[in-house]
Amino acid sequence: MIISLCMMIMTYLNEPLMARLFALNPITFIKRPWQLVTYMFMHGNFAHLFFNMYTLYVFGTVLERVWGTRKFLLYYFVTGIGAALVHIGVQWLTGDFALTVGASGAIYGILMGYAMLYPDSTLMLLLPPVSVKAKWLVLIFAGIELLLGVTGTQAGVAHFAHLGGLVFGLFLILYWKKTHRLYSRWD
After folding, report:
1. Which residues, 6+ apart, have CB-to-CB distance to 53 below 8 Å?
2. What span, in angstroms and rounded, lies between the C-alpha atoms of 46 and 100?
3. Looking at 80-150, which runs of residues are DSSP E strands?
4. Using CA atoms in the order 74, 100, 111, 51, what is the torsion angle rounded to 10 degrees?
């Protein structure tokens, strides 16, 4: 959280330099592979940063308690980098090249992790004020992201990065489950 806040302050001070060096660029990321990680610490505005960090705090702390810090960080970065790779792939397929910032792909991975470990936990939404089980909420989010991504609605949002985070999170958890490592801690 602190790194993201520092990156936002530095971006306000020199946005062109920060974007060129640290935002995910689908054309130059091969020459700057660190962008696969640094883009997760940059955000478009304070609301983007706040909601990502709030979700990370609410759901990420639960996963970190179960897995330990090292395993949680591995999961976070695998889902975030996986989200970047899926998003870059879609950008190359569509020819729609734009810089990407934000931890949302990794955050969607965190949501998938929570839903896989606690599928029947009930979450209360604010709008609309209804309760929904975690497994259904993640499926609803995935459906919305797929619909918005395919239709091109809500331009400027990396919908396929969100889906990439979900998919990489799902595959990593299924792998850990198959190898009986899902509930092992890495302290």
Report:
1. 1, 4, 103
2. 16
3. 122-124, 131-133
4. 120
Tokens encoding 129: 């004020």
Tens-digit pLDDT profile for the chain (187 aa)? 899 989 999 999 999 999 999 999 999 999 999 999 999 999 999 999 999 999 999 999 999 999 999 999 999 999 999 999 999 999 999 999 999 999 999 999 999 999 999 999 999 998 899 999 999 999 999 999 999 999 998 889 999 999 999 999 999 999 999 999 998 988 7
And the tokens for 45?
């505005």
Evaluate if pTM is beyond 0.85. yes
The CA distance from 169 to 91, in Å, is 21
Query: Cα–Cα distance between 167 and 165 in angstroms, integer?
Result: 6
Determine the 3-state secondary structure of 178 from DSSP: helix
For residue 124, list its beta bridge partners: 131
| CA-to-CA separations, 169 to 79, 125, 158, 165, 176, in angstroms, rounded | 5, 23, 17, 6, 11
Q: How far apart are CA 127 and CA 113, in angstroms?
A: 23
Q: Indicate the SS3 state at residue 147.
A: helix
For the chain, state the CA radius of gyration.
16
